[in-house]
Amino acid sequence: MAEKLESINEQLNKITEADKEMSKNLDKKIDDINNKLDEIHKMNEKSQTYSDIINSTEHLPSNSNLARQNNQKKPLTADVIIVKSKINSQPSSKTELEIKSLLRKHNVMIPVDFQPISRGGCVIKIQKNEKVIELFEQLNKLASENYEFKVPSKKYPRIKISNVRQKYDTAEQIKSEMCILNSFINEDDNISLVRRSEFNNKFSYVLELNPKTFLKVIDHEHINLDYNSFKVKEHIYILRCLKC
Q1: Counting C-beta atoms within 10 Å of the first and last residue's C-beta, which end of the chain has fewer, N or C?
Q2: Alpha-carbon distances of 12 from 2, 16, 18, 19, 207, rounded to whole Å
Q3: Quick one: average pLDDT of 210-230?
Q4: How far apart are alpha carbons 129 and 143 in whole angstroms?
Q5: Cβ neighbours around 125 below 10 Å, total
Q6: Residues 170, 161: Cα–Cα separation, whole Å
């Protein structure tokens, strides 16, 4: 009987030791997981999000597109002029040569860079934004008979709000209600309605915002509209050619 009790005690001791060893291994694994999570958190703190990049202009030159977008409320023009020949068969190289010749002939000294595009056109990249309108007006005076000139507008970031029951026809209606229901939306924020779509008697809205307003909305993650809270996501749009 004593031998059996001793055997049982030995087995219990072995089980106890095994439990202690398993507990140590488990604690070690938990510590390893926690250390890895801490490393990931530290990496996330150091890395910039898209919002951080848009919001920060300290690292950007004062004449960069992003810096200007953050520091101004009104829509800006792009730093380019699009030139299209009225003769469809004309190659882009000829368009570039003729425009350069006109600029030299009339002593227009504005730093630019040319890039060919389809249908006999080219894009003129202007190094100084304040010179865009000046060059645009001069080109129209010198070559409007043979060429068409266009200054594209700046593209602002967009958001999408889905499953809204209320139908809004204008950006003013949406903005007015946003200002009332959201403390972080102001009257001077730039908000425009890009597209409205309907499905199952509910509406989705794509809105274009100036960068500062976009950041405020994205940081809040939700926006109040039609007396409901809606999750907001950035609307990524890609231009597609459907001609061929």
Answers
A1: C
A2: 15, 6, 10, 10, 70
A3: 90
A4: 21
A5: 14
A6: 15
In our burial notation (b when 16+ CB lie closer than 10 A, e otherwise), range 164-194 reads beeebeebeebbebbbeebeebeeebbbbbe
Name the fold adopted by 80-150: Alpha-Beta Plaits (3.30.70)
User: 0.70 cut: is pTM over it?
Assistant: no
- For residue 142, what is the enclosing H or E element? helix 132-143
The predicted pLDDT at position 62 comes to: 43
pLDDT in tens, 35-80: 776 776 666 555 555 445 445 544 444 444 444 444 444 444 568 8
Break the chain into its structural domains and give their ranges: 32-71, 80-150, 158-234
- Whether residue 25 has pLDDT greater than 80: no
Q: Residue 209 and residue 225: Cα distance in Å, rounded?
A: 16
Tell me, what's the pLDDT at 71?
Answer: 43
Rounded to 5°, angle at Cα 78 from 76 and 80: 150
Q: For residues 118 and 93, is the Cβ–Cβ distance under 8 A? A: no
Counts for the chain of helices (H) and strands (E), in that order: 7, 10
The three-class DSSP label of residue 168 is coil
Segment among 18-27, 65-74, 234-243 with least mean pLDDT: 65-74
